[in-house]
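Example 4.3 (complexes with small molecules)
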Amino acid sequence: MPQPLARIVQDELLTGPRGPDGRHEIVVPRSWLAEGAWVEIPLPRLLSCALCDGGGCDRCHRSGAVTTRVQQMSTEVIEVQLPVGGPAILRLPRLGGLPSPGEALGRGLLLLTIRVGAEPSAGLRKLPDRASLRSVHPSPIPPHPRLKGTLLTPHRILALAALCLIVGILWWLRQ
Ligand SMILES: [Zn+2]
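Answer. The structure with zinc ion bound is encoded below.
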């Protein structure tokens, strides 16, 4: 039976070749989980390697950590909708570690552990109710920059018009 395309894309993101996966943990009040709130999470630049849990493996070059962004970049803040109910681990594609230099891959997964506590983790912010919004994935793939507005620029329209004119004249001359 054919799978829906979105499902295939999602599976590819979760299981396909990618940068190293990283772990992060947040603590939220139970009430936030109960309502499936949207939260803003500042993502650390270094995450614990999900494969070795910080012990050091080939994937993280024995460092135990994976890097989510280059040093100069400002803090990355992600928006995630908490799963309604109890504690959980979310697998978020393209929010984990950067691939090694020279690897043409996307970022790995972010394995986000959500635990319940009296106080939310530092830096965590509950967003206003977004129930009216589409339940978008927290990491939409940015559009390819070169695909934007390249088809019909004014110059190309003009060139096309000139070409039509030339072809027209040639055709007329052959009559
Ligand atoms: Zn590792």
